[in-house]
Amino acid sequence: MDNRLTRYELELMDVLWKLGEGTVQDVCDNLERELAYTTVMTTLSLLERKKGVLKRDKVGRAFVYRPLVTREQVQQNVVEDLRGVLFGESVSSLVLNLLSADESMSRADINSIRAALREVEQKNNAKRNS
pLDDT tens across 74-115, in order? Predict the structure, then answer.
């Protein structure tokens, strides 16, 4: 399964992750921009047949598409690709770049990042001590 998706494919997947499942028309109706029905149909079919990230079932006269991968799985793949290709495998460069790109970080975001860093430190300390 190739979870590398284009920005356009991610838009369609986003709709299906939000809906849980849907027909081509459901996806078209829930996109933020207007796209041709046939374009969406072709891309959903490609995501099912070639990329293996969707499953489709015939329900009446329409196909209903359901994601086979979670948003989190695809996020992980994208982050690994970014780290490897753009940041030379450097986690710190990737994270620092992300942090500097977002000037409107909320207090809750900052607290979440601190908590995640503490968790990573604890795991690393536990590994060293075992």
Answer: 999 999 988 999 999 998 898 888 888 877 888 898 899 999
* Domain of residue 85, CATH code: 1.10.10.10
* Total-model pTM: 0.80
Q: Token pair of 28, please?
A: 């078209």
Q: Is residue 15 part of a domain?
A: yes
* Average pLDDT estimate for 19-30: 98
CA distances to 25, 35, 63 from 59, in Å: 13, 23, 6
> Which H or E element spans position 67?
strand 62-67
Q: What are the start-end ranges of the H helices in 65-106? A: 71-86, 91-101
Residue span of the structural domain in which 41 resides: 1-89
Residue 112 lies in a domain: no
Number of domains in the chain: 1
